[in-house]
Predict the 3D structure of the following.
Amino acid sequence: MAAKLTVLEKEIATFKLGDIEYISITDIARFKNTARTDDLIRNWLRNRNTIEFLGIWEQLNNPDFKPVEFDGFKMEAGLNSFALTPKQWIEATNAVGLISKAGRYGGTYAQKDIAFEFASWVSVEFKLYLIKEFQRLKEQELQQLGWDIKRNLAKVNYLIHTDAIKENLVPDAVSASQIAQVYANEADLLNVALFGVTAKQWRAQNAGLVGNMRDHANVHQLVCLANLESLNAHFIQQRLSQAARLASLNTLAIKQMSILTNSLIPRSLHIDIENQNSDID
């Protein structure tokens, strides 16, 4: 679902097509006049400065733009008889900076720089709030992207981890449920080393949350988890006991989280190895 911006209590639709991010200038126009959004956009397009701005943007960003048709519009812009709709501009010049969408969620959309220009024409105040809200959305998306990358990294490392378990810890001729139990035990080994609780304990403490503890982990924890998965795979191949691996992984988790968060780790992360081993088994 495309993100929406909320600017001065007005919802502004956005979407992305290829590498270009678009903002609904129809929604922006509603800030000025709810009933005459199309008229406002057409009046804006009649302005010579608007035509020059659109033409320069297209020449910089659109190799298929038709400059001859643009010159014709530029010569007529500002005359009393000149009228132009977004659809006419798009079809005549092969423009990509504006998009005219039909349907329930239709309207005129503009590339973000063009949308900011239109917002300035409508209201300087609205433009400033729009830019601020758009920047907030981009920062939020970057944070989510960073979380997704770290989550996927943890998943990739988990494959390395499960391969090491399969090769070294799962004997031949066992049932599927027995194999699953071995994998679950090793997953809980990592959970205890990093989070201090098993998956079962976490679910009991967070009954109202959807997903598992890894779905609710922060970026620092996911980076650390990816490292622990690789290290545990290495420890398994070295034939270290589960107790020895748990102790080493917990020590490494404390050290890495201290570095990643640049702060002291609470004592709660220091686990009782003997008691946790019994919970894992």
User: Anything to note?
Assistant: The mean pLDDT is 77. The first strand starts at residue 4 and ends at 7.
